[in-house]
Amino acid sequence: MADGPTINTIAERAGVSIASVSRVLNGLPTRQETVRKVMAAADELGYVRNAVARSLKSRRTHQVAFAMADVGNPAYLAMLRQIQPVLKAAGYRLVLHSTDAVVADEIDVLHSLGERYVDGLIMSPLRVTEAHLEMLAAARAPVVIIGSVPDGTRVDNVRADSRTGVRLAVDHLYSLGRRRIAMVNGPLDTVPGASRGDAYREALRDLGLPYDEDLVQIGDFYRAEGGRAVAELLARVPDVDALLCANDLIALGALDVLRAAGRRVPDDVAVVGMDDTDLAAASWPSLTSVSLGSAERGKAAAELLLERLQGGDREPRLITVPPRLVVRASTAGAAAAGYEGASRARTDSTKEEA
Amino acid sequence: MADGPTINTIAERAGVSIASVSRVLNGLPTRQETVRKVMAAADELGYVRNAVARSLKSRRTHQVAFAMADVGNPAYLAMLRQIQPVLKAAGYRLVLHSTDAVVADEIDVLHSLGERYVDGLIMSPLRVTEAHLEMLAAARAPVVIIGSVPDGTRVDNVRADSRTGVRLAVDHLYSLGRRRIAMVNGPLDTVPGASRGDAYREALRDLGLPYDEDLVQIGDFYRAEGGRAVAELLARVPDVDALLCANDLIALGALDVLRAAGRRVPDDVAVVGMDDTDLAAASWPSLTSVSLGSAERGKAAAELLLERLQGGDREPRLITVPPRLVVRASTAGAAAAGYEGASRARTDSTKEEA
DNA sequence: CCAAACACCGTAAACGTTTACAGAGCCTTG
DNA sequence: CAAGGCTCTGTAAACGTTTACGGTGTTTGG
Q1: Can you give the pTM of this predicted structure?
Q2: Distance, angstroms, CA B26 to C1' C29?
């Protein structure tokens, strides 16, 4: 299997030096005759420049990594969908890392930045540990974090405002007359888990509702897990009339279990998800969900990173994307569903901001 | 900003040659004392090997590309979800290309293989043109194609059997008593569009049903497009009693439009999708869909590629993944839905099958 | 007609590794 | 004690580019 042609091969065939070949290929000023010879030789040989050698010399790989917990989670997918075209347009390739939310894997990704196989990194960690912060401080390439990071961390940061998001959801349920509003959350040691849990408590307090520990159920951010959590919850507090789920997958699990248990949604139990993924619009019944702006966050993160890659230094920036409540059938019944279904437009009842 | 340490820095500090450093770092036999000195120096300096330089020398990037039409399409996502862990386990990074089904972009990806920034490529083209085949024949790195490719093409190939898949769907609808079975297809110049269209015709013939051109509607593989196509179809042939949609997105569009038109699903019109994506299980009503084994195809493709990357040469292989009909409410009514809803909760959760 | 200016080109070094080769030191053995 | 063999290490070349620098040949101007 003959090795591919290099600029040496071309130089030989065209009877010029490799420097001239390189100049021609990079469009630097060169005599017409030389250009012609080099181009001809390159064409005949089917030359393609070697990206690795180029990167070694130029210290740029034109690759950017995106690291997230789980490729299967539609919220990350929404980010990915926005990140991809932005990077592509700027001439960057996308390297995808799925860390399964394992801290060691995330640290690994940060560490591997030192290998310089990418020019920058967008990361959306579920947990942010001391180790994360240390690695971030020492990172050898620009990093943008999607998700909250302690104040003062010197890193570009794009956040959702899940606090306000939770409040939108709880207010909505309250305004529908629900008073036994349960929360089905993910692990409390994750960033979203913690903040959504806190926000739930606050929102109840502000509405003058009592905080009842029995109404809080911790599971994991997956459908099956969500279902299990809801089953436990129903057994413990049968009179629950609304479920606030920490993401759409949990909410889908909730719908599965409620259906199996013969509870009508939303008549008996109203359900709200978070993230407003495609699944929410497609589910049965369609799911009221708090959009935390995954797509916007992805786009913003990609743009921040590009800015830093292209521009020079600047202070780290923090961008917060506002949430939006999208009302569908799982809280508002068939009326909302019909509208949603027919128009496919977003019935976003964005309320007053917090 | 000081440049990171290289093996030269380490060699200097440890008082040995760069060859020794390299040997230590790669675990080649070396005197204990030297190992100690090198390791100490590397630790103190926080050395991380440079992946680019390594690749240049070793001619291996430990990267693999996956090119597909659209990150947003859940069928590709299912593939991605399987491909990712297989590659990761083997120590490969994943470079993601989204080609928007633009032929020029796909050719570009094939061409860029010559740049040697990846060791191999998994590609799932919507169309396979002459240009594709030429580039494939000349490809400078192993390629696995997901999707059908002309017989005799010398390339590893993983296919769905959409022919049998379509037949399963048509037979199912027929057995439910439907006789005006329409097909809502994507463009006929795409590989899946063409084969699903053909298969539909054949299946009708084998059942002794007439082929009625009015019952075929061409749109595109997206939800909104699918909806438009179905609207036209309904206007033209109001007595249609079943829709076979060429993918789940089209089917979701169909559900939207049927609902808006006041047709009951499945009582008035039964709907079948293809690809059995997560959306099918979550939709309203849940969608009967033909699984074409996206996940299995992704896994098989990744394994084929790894085999070729690690092992030596071998004849190109062809793997065909059998389809499966997953019956849900959109054809079988509420009974199936209840059953499905409860049971899918287990199988669909993203985590456990990985 | 000579010098200076200019346009173009080739030589060589550099990017950070891996690795073939040979040299140095030491041990064994006849 | 000399020779051969071992083990370990250093030198240098190579991977395929880009680019600083200096050299050559031509043009231009005085």
Answers
A1: 0.89
A2: 35
